[in-house]
Specification:
137 residues, alpha/beta, two-stranded parallel sheet, 25% helix, 20% strand
Length: 137
């Protein structure tokens, strides 16, 4: 069910996930990070490994612990130095000593104007996922 749709005789789903997308200017993508509410979702029962990084917390939102853990893990994998531009969300803190990543925070209230993912990348990703879900139905 999509936003603003009603399901007569059924309750609306309260499921929520947060997905972190990260790519460079050449189009190389960092693996997705997904945050859900459940620590061990039933849909992962028989799954031995995931092609994504999965974290959980009560409201399925990004927090500074998850963000820093993701940054440190990525920093250890990198073989070159990079600059990472992030918005000034309160969860996006940099309390870690990173060797390969320099984090630069975008100015306040400019995310939709200058952040590449805000320029249509996330919208296109959502449309692809919605299309796949509709084909499975």
């Amino acid at each position: 069910m999509f936003k603003n749709e009603s399901a007569k005789g059924f309750k609306s789903s309260k499921e929520q996930v947060t997905v972190l997308c990260c790519a460079n200017m050449k189009g190389e993508k960092q693996g997705l990070l997904v945050i859900g509410k459940s620590k061990n979702p039933r849909c992962f029962k028989e799954v031995r490994s995931l092609p994504i990084d999965y974290y959980s917390n009560a409201n399925a939102w990004m927090n500074s612990v998850i963000f820093n853990d993701w940054l440190v893990k990525w920093d250890l994998e990198l073989k070159r130095n990079i600059v990472l531009f992030v918005d000034n969300c309160t969860a996006h803190t940099n309390n870690s000593l990173l060797k390969n990543i320099k984090v630069i925070f975008l100015p306040a209230n400019t995310t939709s104007l200058i952040q590449p993912c805000g320029q249509g990348i996330i919208r296109a990703y959502k449309l692809i996922i919605a299309g796949k879900c509709m084909r499975e139905l």
